[in-house]
């Protein structure tokens, strides 16, 4: 076992958090119990690059119970829970290379520490591990079977790689599963992003003008939760269909130039860079709060804010206040990184239960069908989505109707009309 973590003495604290998560992730626990005897991942290395949270810990424990050797790094410099990393090393004897607050060079050193294990399977969140793997594929890629990708940004990056015909192994787009993006992205980010903002600032959301940049699954969840807390919500978009959906859902739709004049709190959720730049900042109110819920810290141009500021200070652990040359103050949460993980604990365990069940079953599928996949990006099979949804409903004690033979026949034939 190899590892690089901050402080192994934090393990007891982390273990308690992991136990709490396990109690709220019944689908993943059922899969762990199902596969712990047969161990379909025996003698295989799973190299992961995901946020090191209590929920991720439950996934790594499930993979290990199925026989896998684990090598893991964080996928964002500020998203690792050091106590969770400590518990995984001390209590589970897993190889973890992650700590909160790493530099860019340290971040990539941790990724390469994972690659040195020559993974059979990669599990990624944002595609940094997968992209670095491709750069050194001749060195570390001798065992690779396939990989998975957890988030929208990562899927977009890998689709761009696929278009160049340079994708070197099959990838399952876990993010695109209905039981992932319709729940994790919408309800998970919707709640946890607001949770992070409130923990970092303790501001009252009610009565605020909240600007949500992007109305995909993530933005939809954030806008809904902000409205539920009493905010007036303005949505900015570049996609006409998403903009129309936002308007039909009852939100104001405007350009960022227009929204910059009226917003009190801005939350970016686009997966693109330069969503908020200097020309927007100079129009904003004194005391405005900026937060990002996208995977990378490129949506808010911190570089331009620095260039416009005459001074800055940290008003607390997760909020940096910039004083602009016109004396207006701009408050940025978590360096413009993922607000729900920098300033809070990420998504609730209940919703990550489904996302990580998809991760686990996708790994099993890749292993069971080794050699049958081409070097392409694959969507989750609908049967897997339905299985996970059914297990989740069962765990919640919810029963649903089933089609009768007559109904099945009616839906499968074309003869019966008016």
Automatic annotation (TrEMBL):
Residues 185-346 form the S-adenosyl-L-homocysteine hydrolase NAD binding domain. GO terms for molecular function: adenosylhomocysteinase activity. Substrate binds at residues 53, 125, 150, 180, 184. Keywords: Cytoplasm, Hydrolase, NAD, One-carbon metabolism. Its EC number is 3.13.2.1. It catalyses: S-adenosyl-L-homocysteine + H2O = L-homocysteine + adenosine. Binds 1 NAD(+) per subunit. One of its GO terms (cellular component) is cytosol. It comes from the Archaea. InterPro entries: Adenosylhomocyst_ase-like_sf (IPR042172), Adenosylhomocysteinase-like (IPR000043), Ado_hCys_hydrolase_NAD-bd (IPR015878), NAD(P)-bd_dom_sf (IPR036291), S-Ado-L-homoCys_hydrolase_CS (IPR020082). SMART domains: AdoHcyase, AdoHcyase_NAD. It is found in: Cytoplasm. Pathway: Amino-acid biosynthesis; L-homocysteine biosynthesis; L-homocysteine from S-adenosyl-L-homocysteine: step 1/1. Belongs to the adenosylhomocysteinase family. NCBIfam families: ahcY, PRK05476.2-3. May play a key role in the regulation of the intracellular concentration of adenosylhomocysteine. This is Adenosylhomocysteinase. The gene is ahcY_1.
């Amino acid at each position: 076992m190899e590892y690089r973590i901050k402080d192994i003495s934090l393990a007891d604290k982390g273990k308690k958090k992991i136990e709490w998560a396990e109690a709220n992730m019944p689908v993943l626990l059922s899969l762990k119990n199902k596969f712990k005897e047969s161990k379909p991942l025996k003698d295989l290395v799973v190299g992961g690059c995901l946020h090191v949270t209590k929920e991720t810990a439950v996934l790594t424990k499930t993979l290990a119970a199925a026989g896998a050797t684990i090598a893991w790094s964080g996928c964002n410099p500020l998203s690792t829970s050091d106590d969770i990393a400590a518990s995984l090393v001390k209590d589970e004897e897993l190889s973890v290379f992650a700590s909160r607050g790493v530099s860019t060079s340290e971040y990539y050193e941790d990724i390469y520490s994972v690659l040195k294990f020559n993974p059979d399977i990669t599990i990624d969140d944002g595609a940094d591990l997968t992209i670095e793997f491709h750069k050194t594929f001749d060195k570390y890629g001798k065992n690779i079977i396939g990989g998975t990708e957890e988030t929208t940004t990562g899927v977009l990056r890998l689709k761009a790689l696929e278009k160049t015909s340079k994708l070197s192994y099959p990838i399952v787009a876990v993010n695109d599963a209905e039981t992932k993006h319709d729940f994790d992205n919408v309800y998970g980010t919707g709640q946890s992003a607001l949770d992070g903002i409130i923990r970092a600032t303790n501001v009252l959301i009610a009565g605020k003008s909240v600007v949500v940049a992007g109305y995909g699954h993530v933005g939809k969840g954030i806008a809904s939760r902000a409205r539920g807390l009493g905010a007036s919500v303005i949505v900015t978009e570049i996609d006409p269909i998403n903009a129309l959906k936002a308007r039909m859902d009852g939100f104001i739709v405007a350009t960022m130039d227009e929204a910059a004049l009226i917003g009190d709190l801005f939350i970016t959720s686009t997966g693109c860079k330069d969503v908020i730049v200097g020309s927007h900042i100079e129009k904003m109110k004194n005391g405005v709060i900026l937060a990002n819920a996208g995977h990378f810290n490129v949506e808010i141009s911190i570089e331009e804010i620095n260039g416009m500021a005459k001074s800055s200070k940290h008003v607390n652990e997760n909020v940096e206040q910039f004083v602009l040359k016109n004396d207006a103050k701009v408050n940025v949460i978590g360096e413009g990184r993922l607000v729900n993980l920098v300033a809070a604990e990420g998504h609730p365990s209940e919703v990550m239960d489904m996302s990580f069940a998809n991760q686990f079953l996708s790994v099993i599928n890749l292993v069971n069908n080794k050699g049958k996949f081409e070097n392409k990006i694959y969507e989750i099979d609908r049967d897997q989505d339905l299985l996970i949804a059914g297990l989740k409903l069962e765990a919640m004690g919810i029963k649903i109707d089933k089609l009768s033979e007559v109904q099945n026949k009616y839906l499968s034939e074309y003869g019966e009309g008016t």
